[in-house]
Amino acid sequence: MACEALARAPDVLGLQASTIWRSAPVAALGPNFVNAAVMVQTRLCPEDLLRLLLSIELAHGRHRTPTAGLSPARTLDLDLIWMEGEHRQSAELTLPHPRATHRGFVMGPLQEIAPNLMLASPCGQTHTVAQWWGLIPPDPILSSFRPMR
Predict the structure, then answer these.
(1) 11 part of the active site
(2) Domain containing 123: what range?
């Protein structure tokens, strides 16, 4: 449903999606999460693409409310991870996403559609998505990842 909404947006020119993965919540309440990575071609600037993603969340019942401690269960959570040639550091948006390279639920699906994409960590280490995926240590949360076919 979110992919279809994104694909229908006027300034989104193409869309490629990974398979769907499941993961246990990290610092959040609720059932297992369903994760995917999507790559789009767009004429939008990063801030406008983020606003589009947030409007899709809202249309699907997501209401972002600040909380202390664990995040409430989410109906939909769309993050902007990377945009070619773009770097941002603001209250609204940080690009590349500062924690993406250490999150299995991001790197797993992303390595399906963009394994050779170069991503830098906040400390400046640069690897391909496939390399980052291989560097994420196995732990109880990662063992719950299962691509859904």
Answers:
(1) no
(2) 2-148
